[in-house]
Design brief:
Layout (H helix, E strand, L loop, with lengths): L4 E4 L4 E4 L7 E6 L10 H19 L3 E6 L21 H9 L3 H18 L15 H13 L3 E4 L2 E4 L15 H6 L15 E6 L15 E3 L1 H13 L3 E7 L3 H16 L4 E7 L2 E3 L2 E2 L10 H6 L4 H9 L7 E3 L1 H25 L28 H16 L5 H13 L4 H15 L16 H15 L3 H13 L2 E6 L2 E6 L1
Parallel strand pairs: 3-4, 3-9, 9-10, 11-13
Antiparallel strand pairs: 1-2, 5-6, 6-7, 7-8, 11-12, 14-15
Helix pairs in contact: 2-3, 4-6, 6-7, 9-10, 10-13, 11-12, 11-13, 12-13, 14-15
Length: 492
């Protein structure tokens, strides 16, 4: 199996990936808090997780992925939505929209699932809901109390961060730094401002409440992910993903809870995606620049075009979305579909077998001209090796896309191009296998004569005549493209 390199946020370095169980991967991805619609910045993070999974499966791993649904327990730290600090976001949305918490959670969960399906993110194997796993959370909290890592105060339970020596190893924060710069309003009943909530005592009139040994209340946000990930994946995970904003405090607290309870390393590889910028600013409700998929569709941008745009950016780098870049991605997607349709029409039933490459993790130097001088089988293997080397190098999808365009421009036979691109699309996820063969284009006698004249002009290097004839054909609705295999045309 070819070596895969991932950047591990724990240690802040790229390292060779190995799983706890050979050929199997346990993967947990932090899911949405279902109190509002997700935006395309959120979708970029879920797309990162999808690409990690696709790369692993492309390399022969069997991946089990869990994405949680936070339908209670995520407390607000700001009031941009009119939510009080310390108020549960789902319950606040229920209050504002005059619906039950269950109605709010079900509505926004369904909207989330529809959005990720629209950009062809593979469904997780389970979407556990926090409200359905309260017993597991209570058991975990009790275990932390029994180990001296948590304490009860006034009906709430807090984690004692000073009792966990490794606290801060993911984010790099020290306890002294946290205490000095603590932003959230300090709960006076806590022993230390840096201690975090495991169980919150219920307020009068609260809608979602469960009984516990410490009184009625509801779980804190952080304990949910520890309890649900361990319920379905066991005490140790191979990969845990999320946005970079979750490194602290959420993922830092997950480590403290999980490792404190089990005494085992919780996650082998932590992977985090960078923020999305919209016209140069971080996408956020407070800045008023939030874009949803439906906003893109209203402007003629398909969800898969947004996926293609994301593929052109490294997941750990900030990505700036503009309407210009979105329309350019739509045009590139349409171009790729046209090529696939034409290759499928030309190949007929003569589709080449998908290349099988077992490389050494080294990037092959394949460009648009490398195939010249190579027999098609050797050229196919070279392109396949270059693609695999790119995706296995910490999801270098921008480099992998250059291989895609190099294949498109190459002089490989149509059936070889089609086989390569459909194989690559197992990772790219652009649904290119669904593109039908192009219908043969019927030419009029005049159009055929003009094409023949242009071909003769190009052979004579009469570029002025060639350009004039291209323009005349375009005026008739026939778009001419020059390829290594010669002219090709399509109706406007």
């Amino acid at each position: 199996m070819t070596e895969i390199q991932f950047f591990n946020s724990l240690g802040r370095r790229k390292e060779a990936f190995t799983s706890l169980t050979p050929d199997q991967v346990r993967m947990y991805s932090c899911g949405p808090t279902v109190y509002r619609y997700i935006h395309i910045g959120n979708l970029r993070t879920y797309l990162m997780s999808d690409l990690i999974r696709r790369v692993l499966e492309y390399n022969g791993y069997q991946v089990t992925q869990i994405i949680n649904i936070t339908d209670v327990g995520h407390l607000a730290e700001e009031d941009a939505l009119g939510i009080e600090s310390g108020e549960d976001k789902v319950l606040a949305a229920a209050r504002q929209e005059r619906k039950s918490p269950q109605e709010i959670a079900e509505h926004y969960t369904q909207a989330f699932l529809e959005d990720i399906a629209a950009i062809n993110i593979q469904p997780a194997h389970r979407y556990p809901k926090a409200t359905q796993h309260i017993p597991q959370m209570l058991a975990l909290i009790q275990k932390l109390i029994d180990k001296g890592l948590a304490y009860a105060r006034g009906g709430s339970v807090f984690y004692d961060v000073s009792a966990f020596p490794d606290y801060g190893k993911l984010s790099g924060h020290t306890l002294d730094e946290l205490r000095a710069g603590y932003r959230i309003e300090v709960d006076e009943i806590k022993d230390d401002p840096a201690d975090f909530l495991l169980w919150r005592g219920a307020r009068p009139g609260q809608l979602a409440v469960w009984d516990s040994p410490w009184g009625p209340g509801f779980p804190g946000w952080h304990i949910e992910c520890s309890a649900m990930s361990m319920e379905y994946l066991g005490p140790q995970l191979d990969i845990h993903t999320g946005g970079e904003d979750l490194i602290f405090p959420h993922h830092e607290n997950e480590i403290a809870q999980s490792e404190g309870a089990t005494g085992l390393p919780f996650v082998r590889v932590w992977m985090h995606g960078a923020h999305l910028l919209a016209e140069g600013r971080k996408m956020a409700k407070s800045t008023g620049n939030v874009l949803r998929l439906k906003d893109l569709v209203a402007q003629g941008i398909e969800p898969l075009a947004y996926r293609l745009l994301c593929l052109g950016h490294q997941y750990r780098g900030h990505m700036n979305v503009t309407w210009e870049s979105l329309h350019a991605a739509q045009a590139r997607l349409e171009r790729l579909r046209r090529s696939v349709a034409e290759w499928r029409q030309a190949a007929g039933d003569n589709l080449s077998p998908s290349p099988t490459v077992e490389g050494q993790g080294k990037r092959s130097a394949v460009g648009s001209h490398t195939a010249h001088g190579m027999e098609p089988p050797a050229a196919r293997e070279a392109y396949a090796a270059a693609f695999r080397a790119a995706i296995n190098d910490d999801l270098a999808l921008p480099t992998a896309l250059t291989v895609v365009w190099d294949v498109e421009k190459s002089d490989l036979p149509p059936q070889d191009k089609l086989a390569l691109i459909l194989d690559f699309d197992r990772v790219l996820g652009l649904r290119l296998a669904e593109v039908p063969a192009a219908a043969p284009i019927e030419l009029t006698e005049e159009e055929r004569a003009l094409i023949e004249q242009r071909d003769a002009a190009r052979k004579a290097r009469d570029w002025a005549t060639s350009d004039r004839l291209r323009a005349e054909l375009a005026a008739r609705g026939l778009i001419i493209e020059d390829t290594p295999q010669g002219m090709r045309w399509r109706r406007r």
